[in-house]
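lol forgot to send this yesterday, sorry. struct tokens for the thing we talked abt
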């Protein structure tokens, strides 16, 4: 009977740890891959050519999402300046420069409206260096006590023009 109780306790502890690890991974993995779609043929071909899981700029922006989410989790706000991301202990912030254009990303914590209602673009390419388009990080501001959701998006032409300068 003691063996059964020990085995059950060990299994329960292992299951609890596994569940907590999965929840943490889901929370930190809030930076989801996404590409915008449109009814126009050019937008559809653009989406298939540019993939946020293989484009070097989009991949770098995915890497920026982790420190961004951790910063928000710690301070319950976005940083005023992108260089503040390095204030989160134990986090390596990748260079905030597009690996294609070698230009510094533009950060605006109060950025323009995003691709979906209730979202905004906070970090994005300075130039349309990706087949004439820009990548950016789109966030949805959470309700109090909820997690920030961030994802890498290919900015639609109209939005790309809006953030252009």
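and heres what i got for the seq, position by position
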């Amino acid at each position: 009977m003691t063996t059964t109780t020990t085995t059950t306790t060990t299994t329960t502890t292992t299951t609890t740890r596994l569940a907590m690890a999965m929840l943490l991974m889901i929370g930190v993995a809030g930076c989801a891959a996404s590409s915008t779609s449109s009814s126009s043929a050019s937008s559809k071909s653009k989406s298939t050519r540019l993939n946020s899981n293989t484009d070097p700029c989009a991949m770098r922006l995915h890497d920026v999402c982790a420190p961004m989410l951790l910063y928000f989790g710690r301070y319950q706000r976005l940083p005023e300046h992108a260089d503040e991301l390095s204030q989160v202990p134990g986090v390596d912030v990748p260079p905030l420069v597009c690996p294609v254009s070698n230009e510094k990303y533009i950060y605006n914590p109060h950025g323009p409206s995003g691709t979906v209602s209730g979202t905004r673009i906070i970090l994005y390419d300075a130039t349309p260096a990706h087949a004439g388009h820009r990548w950016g990080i789109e966030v949805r501001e959470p309700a109090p006590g909820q997690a920030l959701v961030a994802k890498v998006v290919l900015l639609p032409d109209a939005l790309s023009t809006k953030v252009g300068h």
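The longest strand covers residues 119-124. anyway ping me if u want another try
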